[in-house]
Amino acid sequence: MWFKTRSSALGDFEQLILLGVLRLDEDAYGAAIRQEIHARSGRDVSINAVYTTLDRLERKGLLRSWVGEPTAQRGGRRRKFYALRPSGMAALRQAYHSFTEMADGLQSRLSLTKGVK
Amino acid sequence: MRSAPPRLAVWLLTQRLSNAWRDFVIGDLEEEYQTRRLRSPLAARSWFWRQTVRCLIAPPPVHYTPGAAEASSGDSHMLTLIADLRYAARVIRRAPSFAVAVISVLAIGIGANTALFSIVNAVLLRPLPFDQPEQLVRLFTKPPQTSAASVPIFGLSPGKFYDWQRNSTSFEGMALYRFRQFALSGSGSARAIVAGAVGAGFFETLHAQPARGRVFLPEEDTPAGKHVAIVSDRFWNSELGAAPDVVGRTLTLDDEAYTIVGVMPARATVPAWEVMASDIWVPIALTEEQRGVRSNHNQRGFARLKPGVTVEQAQAEMDAISARLAQEFPASDGRWGAVVMPMREEIVGDSRGMLVMLLGAVALVLLIACANVGNLLFTRALTRRKELAIRSALGAGRGRVFQQLLTEAVVYAAMGGALGLVLAAATLSSVSTVLANQIPRAAEITIDGRVLLFAIAASLLTGILAGTLPAVRAGRADVNDALKEGGRGDAAVGVGTRRLLIICEVALSLVLLMSAGVMIQSLLALRQSNTGFDLSNVLTMEVSLVATRYQTPAQRTAFYDAALQRIRALPGVEAAATIDDLPLLDGSSQTLALEGSTAPAQSDPVAVQVRQITPGYLETMRIPLLRGRNIAESDSDVLLVSREAAKLYWGTDDPIGRRAALPMISRTMFREVVGIVGDVKQRDLADSFTPTVYYYSRDRSWGGATFVIRTSVPPATLAQPATAAIHAIDPQQPVQNVQTMERIRDERLSSQRLSALLLGVFAGIALLLASVGIYSVVSYIVRGRSREIGIRAALGARTSDVLGLVIVEGMTPTLIGIVVGTIAAFAAARILERLVFGVSPYDAVTLVAVAVTLGAVALVACMVPAYRAAQLDPLKVLRES
Predict the structure, then answer these.
(1) Which residues of B703-717 are buried (b: 16+ CB within 10 A; e: fewer)?
(2) Interface mutation vs chain A, best among B10, B26, B28, B56, most A CBs within 10 Å
(3) Would you place residue B313 in the very low, low, confident or very high pLDDT band (cuts 50, 70, 90)?
């Protein structure tokens, strides 16, 4: 495995995935998350990476999942939806705080016109 | 609208992904694929594939929970395959020289097959480059099938064509065409050019749109119509500098101005169909009188079937129309029929049989390569017996070992196939120019998707074929035995299988050698066949007088007289004359009308070849005068008949002094027969002698003729002086097709030469592979029995005994192979029967020669290991074991 599975700190890609799940609310499944990340961060990630990470986050207890109904658009295949568990929300909050704290006051040196919101 | 994502990719994903993920991942991909393909289907596919590859490399993980083991069969298959592939790669890296040997044998086999298949693909399989080509048909007339010498199909007469066009309903369009010689002048000296003279509706029926300008208007297809022309893209580029304002400019053809009204696009040029290979098209513009001609079949025609109409339906309709016309015009149409032939069939013609035969031959080469590689893999598998035994001991089932060895064989075959494809591509690019005049559609030979697919399929099949036997036999090896130290059992393993491989190789080689031998003999027989005239030292050249400058028969006669006089005066010229159509190249055939005969000419037609000659022709071609006298300058309108023609028309009567009319020239003018001459092959070398009537008229009714010049020096050296002699009379007169009669003969044989050459090459490869196979098998057997041979030598066996022992070992399967091969060759002879001339495909002498050659090669291949065996030092061998 490329990541240390025990670590409670979130990796960069894990953060993107969790934010994607949060954004999509009730409609968070692989393809939608992939597209959301692509649209917002510009990273064109592969579907296997998305699911590998979702799976890891679920096993860490940060996400929960359920299986939807098959649709014609998907050639009669089912979807697997994800949602944040409270611990996932907490981990995300934690990650956000550490990032903003570390970045605070560096906006000008990073040549950012807008501060981190 | 839904459209499925790439099926192969989905299948691969299904195999690779575990049950836990399959639905979600593939479903997600397909869902996004559907949105993406609305923007760009191509980009969507490529995206799908990229995603697939990434999933195949690193699929989402699977977590086994005890008690809930899922049956993910696909996953395990895929993993095993990957493991096997990795292992195969390691095996190849460990023994690179072995791999090189195997891969090069396979590359030769697969490469030769791929190259030949790309020819077959271009000629036989790929559709013609027209819009809906399956609707296009050629139209022919079918002459009454009475005389033995009758031709199966004929061109069209305008009268019949226009009746067909008026009466038929099966066709969307129908057009008449022919070829016209023009002298194209303008910049520099005039040159001869063959233009397509096309009837109204020609391009419309073809569905060919001009790139610039327009096609011909119906009113231009009349003698009163303006002189207009359409040019090809090639002509527009090379001669007209790709000028954008070309429409409206003029071309000078036969000293007359033709206005260019259109330019055809490059894709309209079709090298395989003469009329669309032209550079210039003009309207055929027949006069009212010409349109009514019913008995002169010198036009060509094609048509396009209406959608949904089959060739058979069209043929049935044309049969009915022909029957009606036969009643209406009994003199000219009685017993004549119509033939509707798919255009592809017409273009591909005779090459089909030859190509299928060659494809069969090259497949045999691949089989021999398979047998060789099978043998090599087998040997290799045996040297790895210990390794395989360990695998078995650790729990690998026989199936597992089989699968792994088969995977290795397929990996070798895939690499051989890739190399073979490169070889094929390299040869084809250089070969297609050579093939250009030998087979139809040669210009279209390329490696396309279908060829690629063929190469892949051939490689896979080869791998499976070559790998199965060794894999089965090796999988059967006894673990206990193999793991024992010393492994002395080696000698006994698989000797029977190897003998079987030798038998196969020898038998297949014999079939190929036999076919090649027969084909080469057929070619030689054709080359040396008696043509009835002497083709050595004859130069020929064609002149087609510019109609506008030579309008009267007297002008034309004067030109040819002057030209012959000058040519005869050249040093090195023994004799010279002219003829309208050269022997071997076919020409006009007519039905003579005998004077005083009451029977109407057409009711019992016996067609003979009719040629217009000048005095001196017989001497130039060295055709013997059998009786009577030769024609002379002082003659006017006399006939010479060949022996066969005399027999055909006058039977046992003496034709000399009798008179006959040539109905296509004049029905009322009877000419006297003055002599009987030897027969000549007018149509084809493989034909029998053609009954021929020669006539001589002072007045030339048309301006084209071919000079024949007998030389005392090499004929090609006179090409330049003879051309100069024509230009001395008229510098603006083009001269074309300056070539020797021998060259013409050789060109007539080009397809036979090609098949003989290819079969020879294939047989050579087969012989080489078979000898290598025999050598390696016998060496292997010697190695295995070295102990036994050592004991024999120690007990006093002489060198010759040992040699004999080994040679018997190798020659026994060879001899069995020769017997089996003979039986197979007789079966193959049925295919060759229709392709050979002057030699039986069952020819016993060839068979014996081939068998002896094979035996000798096998003997040499045995000698090397046999000699090595005889040199064995008994002490050393016995000590080692």
Answers:
(1) bebbbbbbbeeebee
(2) B28
(3) very high
Provide the residue count of chain B. 881
Contact B131, B270 (CB under 8 A): no
Lookup result for tokens 């089932």: B397
Alpha helices in B795-843 (DSSP H): 799-832
In angstroms, the Cα distances linking B165 to B288, B311, B784 are 16, 16, 79
DSSP 8-state secondary structure symbol assigned to residue B121:
I
Asked whether the predicted pLDDT for residue B31 surpasses 60, the reply is: yes
Q: At which residue do the structure tokens 């063959």 appear?
A: B194
Query: Would you state the structure tokens that stand for residue B200, as one six-digit string?
Result: 């109204």
Chain A, chain B: beta-carbon pairs less than 8 Å apart: 71
Q: Rounded CA gap, B30 and B35, in Å?
A: 9
Question: For residue A46, which of B376, B405, B50 has the smallest C-alpha distance?
Answer: B50
pLDDT tens digits for range B844-855: 899 999 999 999
Q: Could you give the dihedral angle defined by the CA atoms of residues B734, B439, B533 and B616, in that order, rounded to the nearest 10 degrees?
A: -10
Q: Are B707 and B722 in contact (CB under 8 A)?
A: yes
Give me the amino acid identity at B753: R
Q: What is the pLDDT of residue B349?
A: 76
**Residue B231 confidence (pLDDT):** 94
Alpha helices in B494-608 (DSSP H): 495-528, 553-569
Q: Is B55 on the interface with A (CB under 8 A)?
A: yes
Considering all CA atoms of chain B, what is the largest pairwise distance in Å, rounded to the nearest integer? Answer: 114
- 3-state secondary structure (DSSP) of residue B381: helix
Please tell me the number of Cα atoms within 13 Å of B261 on its side-chain side.
14
CB atoms within 10 A of CB B525: 16
Contacts of B808 (CB under 8 A, 6+ apart): none
Largest CA distance in chain A: 52
Q: Could you give the domains of chain A? A: 12-103 (1.10.10.10)
Q: Tokens 């190399």 correspond to what residue?
A: B419
Q: Which amino acid is at B199?
A: G
ipTM of the complex: 0.85
Identify which of B397, B536, B379 has the alpha carbon closest to the alpha carbon of residue B473.
B379
Task: Please check whether residue A64 touches B, CB under 8 A.
Answer: no
Of B784 and A34, the one with more pLDDT: A34
CA–CA gap between residue B609 and residue B604 (Å, rounded): 16
CB contact under 8 A, B32 and A34: yes
> Which has more pLDDT, B312 or B149?
B312
Average pLDDT on A5-14 reads 70
- To probe the interface with A, which of B3, B13, B29 has the most A CB atoms within 10 Å? B29
pTM score of the predicted model: 0.69
At A112, list the tokens. Answer: 């950012």
Classify residue B672 by burial, with Cβ atoms within 10 Å: 0-12, 13-18, 19+: middle
Which residues of chain B are within 8 Å of residue A72 when distances are taken between CB atoms?
2
Average pLDDT over chain B, rounded to whole? 85
- Who has greater pLDDT, B791 or B79? B791
Beta bridge partners of B139: B301, B340
Closest Cα in chain A to B49: A46
Per the CB < 8 A criterion, the answer to whether B296 and B664 are in contact is yes
* Main-chain dihedrals φ then ψ at residue B711, nearest 5 degrees: -120, 155
pLDDT confidence of residue B482? 61
Q: Which of B826, B846, B762 is nearest to B509 (CA)?
A: B762
Lowest mean pLDDT: which of A109-113, B104-108, B309-313, B373-377? A109-113
Helix (H, G, I), strand (E, B) or coil at B518: helix
Amino acid identity, residue B225? G
Whole-angstrom distance, CA of residue B305 vs CA of residue B307: 6
Average pLDDT over residues B32-39: 88
Convert the pLDDT of each residue in B816-842 to its tens digit: 999 999 999 998 888 888 888 888 888
Residue type, B851: A
